[in-house]
Design goal:
single chain, alpha/beta, seven-stranded parallel β-sheet, 7 strands
Length: 160
């Protein structure tokens, strides 16, 4: 049985131009349940509407704080104004997520399911982390990776 938490955690999961609405809905449900803010950096490969997310997000979508950014440039302007650190989850990173020191206010950025993020986004990240996989495995589902990294971040900043 989950114990209710009175306040939201100072953490954001951001999705860079997501490809699959079901994954996005699952991540938004995760954010709602754990009190994490969510951000979508558009354009997405599908209409960014409640209807597109309903199947995976169900009625949890009414409980997530979601910011939509019309572009990477708009997102970066918002992030710069907010003074928040950008932590990119990447299969190309070498630092395991469990060895990274998360902090309040971090933004955990997940790339497109089909292509990750462009080099300019890699360059803008304050840190790049990975989830170590067995040899020969390419990647985890983006929603699974989001849950793993968010869980570790919440543990470290004391929100669990």
């Amino acid at each position: 049985m989950a114990l209710p938490r009175a306040e939201a955690c100072p953490l954001t999961l951001a999705l860079f131009q997501p490809d699959i609405p079901q994954n996005t809905g699952t991540i938004l449900r995760l954010c709602a349940c754990l009190g994490i803010q969510a951000a979508i950096i558009e354009p997405a490969a599908f209409p960014v509407t409640d209807r597109a997310f309903r199947r995976a997000g169900m009625d949890y979508l009414d409980h997530v704080e979601l910011r939509r950014h019309v572009s990477w440039t708009a997102f970066e302007a918002w992030r710069s104004d907010a003074g928040r650190r950008l932590v990119l989850l990447s299969t190309e990173a070498s630092l395991p997520y469990t060895r990274f020191g998360f902090a309040e206010g971090d933004i955990l950025l997940l790339g497109r399911e089909s292509a990750g993020v462009p080099e300019a986004v890699h360059a803008a990240a304050d840190a790049r982390i990975t989830i170590p996989l067995r040899g020969g495995m390419r990647s985890l589902n983006v929603a699974v990776a989001a849950a793993m990294a968010a869980g570790e971040a919440l543990r470290q900043i004391g929100c669990v």
